[in-house]
Amino acid sequence: MVGPAHYITLSAVLFTIGVIGVLTRKNAIIVFMAIEIMLNAANLALVTFAMTIGDVAGLIMVLLVIAVAAAEAAVGLAIIVAMFRHRETVNIEAFNVLRG
Amino acid sequence: MSVPYLTLIVFLPVLGMALVAAVPGTRHDAIRRMTLAVTIAHFALSLPLWWLYKSSGAPYQLVERRPWITAFGIDYHLGVDGVTVLLVLLTTFLMPLAVLASWRYIDQHVKEYHLLMLLLTTGMLGVFVALDLFVFYVFWELMLVPMYFIIGIWGGERRIYAAVKFFLYTFIGGLLMLVAILVLYFYHYNLTGTYSYALTDLLAIDVPLRIQLGLFLTFGLAFAIKVPMFPFHTWLPDAHVEAPTAGSVILAAVLLKMGTYGFYRFAIPLFPDAARVLLPWMATLAVIGILYGAMVALVQPNIKKLVAYSSVSHLGFVMLGLFAFNVVGVQGSVIQMINHGLSTGALFFICGMLYERRHTYEIESFGGLSSVMPVFATIFMIVTLSSIGLPGLNGFVGEFLILVGMFQTHPYMAGLATVGVILAAYYMLRMFGRVMFGPIDDESNRGLPDLGRRELAVLVPIVIVIVWIGVYPKPFLDRTAPSVERFVEHVTDSGLLAVEEPIEVEAPR
Amino acid sequence: MNPELQPLIDAYRLIDPSLGAIVPVVLVSLFSIAALVADLFELGTTRGPAEGEEGLAIMAPYLSILGVVLGLVAIVWQALRLDVMAGSYFNGMIIVDGFGVFLTAVILVGTLITLLVTIGYCRRENIQLAEYYYLVLMSAVGMMLLVQSNNLVMIFAALELMSVGVYVLTGFRRRRARAIEGALKYFVLGAFSTGFLVYGMALLYGLTGTFDLAAMGVAVGAGRASPLLLAGLGLVLVGFGFKVALVPFHMWSPDVYQAAPAPITGFMATGVKTAAFAALARFLMTSFDGLASQWIPVLWVLAVLTMFVGNVAAIRQDDIKRMLAYSSIAHAGYLVVALVADSALGNAAFVYYLAAYTFMTLGAFAVVVALGVSGDESTSISRDYGGVAYRHPMLGAAMALFMFSLTGIPPTAGFFGKFAVFSAAVDAGHVGLAVLMVFASVISAYYYLRVVVAMYMGAPEGEPVRVQVPAMAVIALIATVVGVLALGIYPGGWVDLARASVAGLQHGAGLP
Amino acid sequence: MESLLWLIPAFPLAGVAINGLFGRKLGDRVVSVIGPGAVGAAFAMAAASFIALRGLPPAERLLQQTLYSWLPAGEFSASIGFQLDPLSMTMVLVVTGVGFLIHLYSVGYMHGDGGYARYFAYLNLFTFAMLLLVMADNFLLLFVGWEGVGLCSYLLIGYWFEDQAKADAGKKAFIVNRIGDFGFLLGIFLIFWTFGSVAFSDVLPEAATRLTLGGDLAFWICLFLFIGAVGKSAQIPLFVWLPDAMAGPTPVSALIHAATMVTAGVYMVARAHALYEMAPQVLALVAGIGAATALFAATIGIVQNDIKKVLAYSTISQLGYMFLGVGVAAFSAGIFHLVTHAFFKAVLFLGAGSVIHALHGEQDMRTMGGLKPKLPITYWTMLAATLAIAGVPPLAGFVSKDEILWRTWDGGHSVLWVIGFITAGLTAAYMFRLFFLTFHGSFRGTKEQWGHAHESPWTMTVPLVILGALSVVGGWIGLPAALGQPLGGIANRFEGWLAPVFEAGEHAVHEPHAIPPIEYGLMTASVAIATLGILVAYWAYLRSPDLPGRVVARSRGVYTLLYGKYFVDELYDFLIVRPFYALSRFAWRVIDDGLIDGLGVGGTGALVKRGSRIVSRWETGYVQGYAVAFFGGVFAILAYYYLFR
Amino acid sequence: MTGVDVAFWILAAISVGASLVVITNRNPVACVLFLVVAFFALAGLFVTLHSHFLAAIQVIIYAGAIMVLFLFVILLLNLGQQQWFDVSNNPLRVTAVVFGAGFLALLVGGGISGVTPTVRGPAAGISPDLLGSTGAIGAALYTAYFMPFITIALLLLLAMVGAVAIARRER
Prior knowledge:
The complex is a heteropentamer.
Chain B: H1 5-22, H2 28-46, H3 49-52, E1 61-69, E2 74-80, H4 82-105, H5 110-129, H6 133-142, H7 144-154, H8 159-192, H9 199-204, H10 209-226, H11 235-242, H12 245-270, H13 272-298, H14 303-322, H15 327-358, H16 369-372, H17 374-388, H18 394-409, H19 411-436, H20 453-471, H21 474-493
Helix pairs in contact in B: 1-2, 1-5, 2-4, 2-5, 4-5, 4-12, 4-15, 4-20, 5-6, 5-7, 6-8, 7-8, 8-10, 8-11, 10-12, 10-13, 11-12, 11-14, 12-13, 12-14, 12-15, 13-14, 13-19, 14-15, 14-18, 14-19, 15-17, 15-18, 15-20, 15-21, 17-19, 17-20, 18-19, 18-20
Chain C: H1 6-15, H2 23-38, H3 59-80, H4 82-85, E1 87-89, E2 94-96, H5 98-125, H6 130-148, H7 152-170, H8 177-208, H9 213-220, H10 227-243, H11 252-259, H12 262-287, H13 292-314, H14 320-341, H15 344-371, H16 381-384, H17 388-391, H18 393-407, H19 413-427, H20 431-457, H21 471-489, H22 491-502
Antiparallel strand pairs in C: 1-2
Helix pairs in contact in C: 2-3, 2-6, 3-5, 3-6, 5-6, 5-12, 5-15, 5-21, 5-22, 6-7, 6-12, 7-8, 7-12, 8-10, 8-11, 9-12, 11-12, 11-14, 12-14, 12-15, 13-14, 13-20, 14-15, 14-19, 14-20, 15-18, 15-19, 15-21, 15-22, 18-20, 19-20, 19-21
Chain D: H1 7-26, H2 28-55, E1 63-69, E2 79-84, H3 86-109, H4 116-135, H5 139-157, H6 164-195, H7 200-210, H8 216-232, H9 241-245, H10 250-259, H11 264-271, H12 273-276, H13 280-301, H14 307-327, H15 331-358, H16 376-390, H17 396-410, H18 414-439, H19 447-452, H20 458-473, H21 481-484, H22 493-502, H23 517-543, H24 547-554, H25 556-563, H26 568-618, H27 623-643
Antiparallel strand pairs in D: 1-2
Helix pairs in contact in D: 1-2, 1-4, 2-3, 2-4, 3-4, 3-10, 3-15, 3-20, 4-5, 5-6, 5-10, 6-8, 8-11, 8-13, 10-15, 11-15, 13-14, 13-18, 14-15, 14-17, 14-18, 15-16, 15-17, 15-20, 15-22, 16-18, 16-20, 17-18, 17-23, 18-23
């Protein structure tokens, strides 16, 4: 019998996948996608909890997260574009002037 | 009393700063004169202290107490005892001379310099008169800043290194002390239920020995750095060598006293039992300081450095006297604080005058100056002898009392320390001989001018006091006696521990 | 009447009484939008943007300043009516209490100073875009909301509003690769941390069944906590830890601070930190007061790491913005010490320190901005700061004051702030932590002094440049100097204010 | 009278003030009036008080005056106070009297010197300090004078400071003295520790009660005091400074390093006799060191060629006699020799001075000779003094020295007597060697030296004559009973005079009868050996002048040893000075610069800087590096929560 | 094993698989598409949780809007083909995976498996379907959650302005 625990576990797995993605990919866009995966994992957890608790707050939160994701996507992609204008690449590692 | 006399004394220099600031920065002599006027006025203002303080009266007099930060029970709380009076007067007495001595030496950023000097005065006086530990700490750090600038801006080649070293040494000591103060403060609260930083309140409580030890060591560290006691002394030579003349003078004459004064007024009375337990260690460090300082001074090729190390040695005596825990010794070390202020101060003035003539401190580059500068030679000789501790001059009074006092309780310590007397003669005369005697082998020394009027004005007052204290120290001793007796009583009587038996001495009459 | 409208009417009924609570926010956001649109129609201007000039903001600066001033007025108004206004609004989303009001005021003052500094800066750098001011104000709105939010949902929203605004501001000088690089780093890591934050919130939500801080506090209760709850706590801590740059979540800040326009760096260093810290404090004190024993050790370690890594790393920085970045990391560490004390005194110290820190840091950045020249912020201590004090005595003196304040030398705000933190730590029995903080401070003294050394004891390298300090910036400098001294010389009143402000924040604990 | 005691030191002090501050403006004439005048006045005062003192019955011969309380601190207190008892009186008279004459002499000797005023200021200052020393009524004030005379000797030895060697000699004198003073100070501490006071009136009477005979306390007190005396009076092992002290102007050598200051040690032991009697073991040490020094110095004196060096060693040797005297508890005898020595040694120095003066600073006896016709007055006075020091009866030296020898024997210290006896012979020998080399034989100097050689002006000769006369008759005031009784029962007047001071001390107060014949035997013996010494000198340096050369050639090693003064200076330099310097340098370079600054401070700094480099290396600039760190942090926190909670 | 369970396992498998592809595949376009797949799967999971409205939103906004934006950018910057650089150096990848595994282990091992949320809903008699319905969410959003809603509105405006401010092409 599948219970909340399964959903949460799944969300944890997805979240971890997202994290690993962020840590390993060099393509800024894909790093960004990995972050989206993380957010979605969180969403899954939220929905699960909300439905099991029977409280709408969680669902609202999901809504907000999605909106935030959209906003971040806008800004993030803008930054990526600007970055591409400078370096003709989206390789995150091309940017390491600032250090020390 | 109705007039906030101490506040006036402490903050008059700040008012003076306003006056000096009003003078346009390009008119150097005007600035100098203004500052001189302010400092002299300041001295005049502080002079009545000598009479206003009644040695027969209360422990702390001219007390001012106003709430400052009520939330933390912090009061603006000032007061003087006999020792404070002397130190305050010493400070105000030296400031005009310091300004005079900087007349030629400081030729750039003149305005900033004099402003800082005045600020420094306020800081130092505040430290002396503060009766509230928080206020004390505030002034303690406040005094640090102008000194840092004075060394760092108007100093020699390695001035920045010296300034930063000086700053960091004092700063770390101070902050640790702050933590200790807080611990004591909260301990006092838990005992009494009232929040207070007032020395008088904190003296009233009994702190268990275990805590006392920790706190004493922390306070002690802060003060030991300032004194400076071996092995926390290495900032001193650098600071002295690099600082401008007036800087070194004030550093030696006043700032170092804050260390010993801190022990006298705070560390020891607050934690008497710890002080007694640690006495052997402190005394040992003091003795090491005496001998070590003297030995290192002996091999210095640089006059200023030599004098600096001699300070380490002299301050060792002061510490030794404090830890004699009997009236004789403590009286001695109190007088010795003043003496050191005068004679070492004068020595640094003299170094400055040599420097202004030859732009070097290297002993080797002098020699035979006596024949070209007889007056200078005489004064230099007198000061040297006073620093050697020749009877009839001030130095002897302090050292002798200290040693007698210490001998009562710790004969061997005193015996060892007495060796310092020999060494003092050795390194000072060696330096003096190399600088003043012998043939003039460096042509550039031949034409040196003797002391000018300004320089005489700087040195003669000091010499007068040097002789005065040497011949007739009674007024000074009388002034401090009650406070010192109270100190000794407090330390030896306060009760967790039995005093480790001093050999009983009852006069046969 | 039209039943269709019924829900809206209900909504309004529900909202109406709460509006008083958000007057400042409303004012500021309105003026931000006004600033955005005003110049679209080139109001009050006869000419278009000159060559090399990017955009043309005539009204925006003044509108935004006006907005912030009005916001401040509103805050004062709230503060005065606190006794009647105190309470939670919008279904517990927004809370009005001393803590919130005080820190909102701090943030608004910070914003105001930032704006004053910015105007001259933008004119110099030829980036006269209304967006700039709009973004500053919007992030400010985010901060204000963050300080006042009493619900994780609200916290999340406000946090994002603030952050996204700052991301953009960081990369605002987009012609510079560095700026974009900074923005990218900030953005990627920010989003990354958001992920953790959200997940943590999700876990807390799942285990307590609510996002409301107070309710969560009840649900959490005291005693044993389930590991998962602690995990949630941990992840949320991490989320905030990133925003306030606690080691090891601090790595972004030096790069970002260096990349951002100097005024914005100051803004981030003060506003963002203040807001995030406020939220963190509220979260811990309200929701996890019962489990203090669980987060104190963690924060203890983080505090030590932060203080030391920040200070130690700062020592070898030559770029003053980067140096100040590390220094602000270190100061975050000191603030955490105040939190670790977990007492009324600790919170008072915390609030006081935030105020003091805002003044001195913004002051320092104001000087940094003032010393820059067009196209070159000239932030190299060794190269650009040599002998500055003699070219610009006032700037030098001010900078020295700020440096000493940051070091913690009396009689400055910084000193008393440190003193308060020490007191809190010692009072709470964390003497060891206090001592560690001492050593950290001593290390910090070294690099703060370096600036003073350069200005007063160093010589200018090459051709020394004299700069013209715009009137607005002068005002900002005076304000910060006065602030630093006022908080330092007469801390009494401020301390009382701080104490009053945190009175409700946490249960129990006798004062000072 | 008592109320005027202060005048005695006050006069010289006034002299110091006037000459020191205004001397240059006043000019030499005035200075040469004020300088000697001040001391003369002091002498007058002293004479007056002497009469006053004589007026009192022996029992209470004591004048006292306390000026003010100097160091009142807690239970300690010391006053500026003077006392005159017979002992002090004697010293005061010697100091002022001989002092006056030497001042007078200086007027001629220092004539035309650049620092004329400075010289007299110093000399007056010395007189003042010396008077302080002998008139003090407590140990501390005594110490003040003690240091004061040390200072003056430093200043006067280094008077010609342009000459590095002379300046260094002064420094050496001061520092070696300081070593002695170190002992003296400890002595004072211990006295205060024991008696709770440093006033003679408290300490000395209490000695017998508070100290146990031969007890440790007594031992240490006396030992420390004696170390002081050793330093001041140039005894083994601290005698090294005195020969160098001859660098000073000759009158200074006469006054300070012969007549007065160096004898302060003897005075101090005599003054503290009450303590010493409680410490026989120290007394024995005193006697031993005295005798040893006497012989040791004499042997060196025999081979020196510098006329003043010879006198210097002879002084050391004579001081040895004095200590021998006090060492065998013959305090008055010691003091007596002190007095007579003051007379004839002053003459010898002044005479040598006038010789040097005549030869324009030549001091090497090998280039002198046959000066008798040139310097008649000097010659005759020198002869008298030489005979006196050689111990030829009935001159002063014979009387006093023989008293000491007899007491030594009488006290049962036969070994010490033998040493003293031999020394007597050596003394006669080297003194006459000096005498013959200087005045007899043929002149060995250059022509123009011979040409310029002339007798000195009256200011120099008058003192010579007076002192010469004194060194002839001066001994008769202390004629020992052994001689006195046969001559019609004259008791030892001097002893009687000092009796009130020492009576406690005189173990064997000699009733005027039962003179053991042995005493006469010893007396003749010492006369004999003195004559022998003279004859040897006569033989070696007048009859066959080549003899010394052959002797030297035969015993090269011994000669170099003696001529090199047993290389004591070198020894000290090697054993003490150099190692001490090495240690100091070690302290500076290694401990200070190396350990504390380098390792401690610098080390910490380096550590922090290193840490700084490491920490900022973490900021690689790669976002994902940061992300990893971030994630590491998350991981750590969770791990903590899961594993440790 | 009910139908819902089957659906869960299938969707879970799809979402995990797709996500894995996203973080491993070198081709951005492929990544985007697989991400869309993953999102669809998640939407499905929402449905199994009776949260229909959110499922719809998930599909429309995420898959519809955001992902398209991604795709748009990728094509705009002409990054369609494989990116040679997009290989992280091994140590980094290893650490990441290790940390990740550990993290997951902690989360799951730390009690997720046994998580039993405080269930209120059914007790309160609210049916899941009603709870997940548009009406319920809307009502809450415009009343109780008014402030966050407004805030997010401001955020979106700000994001727009910001994106323009940064990505606007040079004058």
